[in-house]
Amino acid sequence: MIELEGLTKRYGEKLAVNNLTFAVRPGIVTGFLGPNGAGKSTTMRMMLGLDNPTAGDVRIDGKHYAQLKDPLTYIGALLDAKAMHGGRSAFNHLLCLAQSNGIPRARVAEVLDTVGLTPVARKKAKGFSLGMGQRLGIAGALLGDPRILMFDEPVNGLDPEGIHWIRNLMKSLAGQGRTVFVSSHLMSEMALTADHLVVIGQGHLLADTSMSDFIEQNSRSYVRLRSPQQERLLDVLHEAGITVVEAGNGTLEVDGGSPEKLGELAATHQLVLHELSPQQASLEEAFMRLTAETVEYHAHTDEPGMTPPVQEPPLARPGWGESWDRAKDEGAR
Ligand code: ADP
Ligand code: MG
């Protein structure tokens, strides 16, 4: 269980994370969704004690990260796996991590097997492909057999096979009763993996809901109507007790309407229709609607010529120090 209470991070003028309160529960995959720049990585870094909150609090099973003894056995994280590991072999990289965290040596071979890297265990990690680097990062996260796992945009830049593998891994980890927290800027990705959804925009909490509720509330079907006689059409629809939304650009939307009925109604009143089309709003659209305001707000407040964010030096923390590479994260946006 991860609990956030009023978690806030300010970088100068910029409120990167603004008063976030939510909990990440065990046994399910919780998706952490938000557009680029929403504050996902900053939040995750604070959860791992890699960045200090300006205000508020994060607790891992009731404790602050710094209070955890052998933290890798509580929480494993993949922050930025795009960064390549150094000249050590995959095996030695994991062995060093294990030794500095009180984890038995035998775990190294086990996690290499889990992520499918056994055949290349003795190869230098810097020659690894993106997908292999990602798997090595995940092996590091799994090393301490932690009850809590955190993945920051794990599928970014992976091939379909790698993406499929990561999705299944996250589901099986949750199936074992672990807490799995995974970020993405893609609704389509979350729809496939997450059981629960936490959505943020500009550092604010926008939604904290089960995936099924989110789908139910947002995947509305409607009929789109356009008519050169829009005023009359509106009157006719109102008289028939049909609720209409004026969607701009001369289009009307009728939630859950039947195109047959609407077409016949228009015909009865001799109204010309230029469009009568059943529509299904995608989850992606729902996500865009939800975050639209915060994105606009962003565009308004960013001063022209504002300098890019200051990069923080990499932190020497076993487990993710080596995979920490802000520059690449920025470059991937
Ligand atoms: P996400 O991971 O959702 O894309 P981030 O947490 O990386 O978002 O960034 C949130 C906001 O905080 C962005 O506007 C980003 O530019 C800013 N930011 C992140 N890290 C720093 C930093 N070290 N210094 C200044 N601003 C930062
Ligand atoms: Mg990020």
Protein model, in words:
With 333 residues, the chain is an alpha/beta fold. The chain has two domains: 2-216 and 314-326, 3-Layer(aba) Sandwich (Rossmann fold); 220-280, Alpha-Beta Plaits, CATH 3.30.70. Helices cover 35% and strands 24% of the residues. It is built from eleven helices and 13 strands. The strands form three sheets. The chain has a six-stranded mixed β-sheet, sandwiched between helices. Strands 11-12-10-13 form a four-stranded antiparallel β-sheet, covered by helices on one side. The longest helix has 19 residues, at 283-301. The chain is elongated and about 80 Å long. It starts with a strand and ends with a helix. The relative contact order is 0.16. Mean pLDDT is 85; it is low at 298-333. The structure holds adenosine-5'-diphosphate and magnesium ion (MG). Residues 323-333 have a biased composition (Basic and acidic residues). This is ATP-binding cassette domain-containing protein. One of its GO terms (molecular function) is ATP binding. Belongs to the ABC transporter superfamily.
